[in-house]
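Sanity check. The docking grid for D-glutamic acid depends on where the pocket ends up, so I'm generating a full predicted complex first rather than guessing from homology. Inputs follow.
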Amino acid sequence: MEMNRKQPDKNAPIGVFDSGVGGLTVAREIMRQMPNEKIIYFGDTARVPYGSKSQETITRYSEQIVRFLRTFQVKTIVVACNTASAYAMDTLEKHIDIPIIGVIRPGARVAVEVTRNGRIGVIATEATIASQMYTKYIKELNKDVTIYGKACPLFVPLVEEGLLQDPVTDEIARRYLTELIDIDIDTLILGCTHYPLIRSTLGRIVGEKVRLVNPAYETALELKEMLGRLDLLGDEPPGLGSNQYRFYVSDMAEKFVRFANSIIKYGILSAKAVNIEDY
Ligand code: DGL
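Predicted complex below; grid placement will be based on this.
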């Protein structure tokens, strides 16, 4: 698929998008693993959440965002949102001539590699679970694995309220995860952008015998491998004040910056609001 694409500039930025702030967990992994890369991040803060919307709507939103990101001549696009990866990836891939990567395939691949008993749990938004995309990709790799999906819609607001270490989050997590523990999963995919931020709570509740798979981390690894293979890794170390990371949102730029600074240690000064419906 990638072979017929025209070769982008290797020092062009990487476009990353999400329904809002959650995709910063993916952006932060890219920053850690590829310190030379520039990033243009778009968070659709006006239209979040995607997790309770239809495939048609999510695909339309994702197409608009891709058009917006392409105005920056990005060399690749990372669909950091699990819900958008689940619902829009197939359509996006068909119409794009630069490499594009979502978070579901990398997460699915690693889960298949690490499971020992072939029982994998997936926690995600309602839409991601309903799409069955994790199941589809996992089954393509190993049809003997059993996947148990569980929608956990309260985790996103809990994380956005900053309740990362809180008895309320513990209690909700226990309720969501008990059925997965009872069916003896040995691997749990954190299939939503926000869940790596409550990883320690989730790990404590499922116990140390269950391996947690973080698609944000695995996607950054796979992105690095893909860019290397396509000769697209940036080779200019960005200088001071070079605007290496630029953030755009569709609403509430200040709130976005506050959240971003609570999880990313690069001193994000600003985010610019754009009218994404124009794209
Ligand atoms: N970013 C979404 C995801 O990873 C979670 C938030 C939302 O529902 O939009 O599925």
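Relevant for the grid: Residues 55-70 form the longest helix (16 residues).
Also worth noting: The mean pLDDT is 95.
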